[in-house]
Amino acid sequence: MSLLRIENLTNTVADKPILKGLSLTLNAGEIHAIMGPNGAGKSTLAYTLGGRPGYEVTGGSVEFDGQDLFDMEPHERAAAGLFLGFQYPVEIPGVSNLQFLRESLNSQRKARGLDPLSGGEFIKLAKEKAGLLGLDMEMLKRPVNVGFSGGEKKRNEMVQMGILDPKLAILDETDSGLDIDALRVVGEGINAIMRKPDKAVLLITHYQRLLDYVKPDFVHVLAGGRIVKSGGADLALELEREGYAEVLA
User: Fold this and answer.
1) Which residues are in the ABC transporter domain (predicted)?
2) pLDDT tens digit string along 60-89?
3) Domain range holding 216?
4) Which phi and psi angles does 144 have, rounded to 5°?
5) Distance CA 152, CA 171 (A)
6) How far is CA 73 from CA 48, 52, 79, 116, 149, in A?
7) Taking the model in full, what pTM does it have?
8) Mutual orientation of helices 119-132 and 150-164 as an angle, nearest 10°?
9) Contact at 8 Å (CB) between 198 and 29?
């Protein structure tokens, strides 16, 4: 069953064409990695799917879990089960992680017709997911990402993903800024949360190193606004060895 079906997607950013006929299908239970040179459109794809303002869709279609993605506002996409992980998670001074996460989760539960979690139920869930990422509960009491290192921000974002429990995670360079230990923890967290038969992951990355921990079923090369080559996990190793020149020739 396809969770995400992208057909001939085109868009512009500041009136400049970026995506130029991109097609891609993710089925439930699959992990896909997208690699490519700088400026290829990788982050643009993530932001367009997430509904970021300024990323204007000019053609094509995207179906998410049987619904037209572009008929939904960004918060509706999130409530339907789409999670977007950012390359640079933002800081929100004055708002505690726990407050932010509880409000986010319960607003999504309300949109799905579910009862909100009580304070005790939420704390139990937060402890469980923080434990997967080795994040101390004291950090969840602090303002969102304020004073966090790069690795702590990424682990905190994975805790958010675990609590929200999405159907599809689009992770934009989650390995950016991680040292070796944090990379392993984050990779193991992604596997524990998302490697399930009813979920899918789209990993956007420059490097093979995250794929050592989160082994993709498919690897795609994005260049010039479209997918130019697809293969299995070995394709990422080939790109690491030889670069993009051979693929783009």
Assistant:
1) 4-249
2) 999 999 999 999 999 999 999 999 998 888
3) 2-248
4) -55, 110
5) 16
6) 12, 10, 10, 22, 31
7) 0.93
8) 130
9) yes
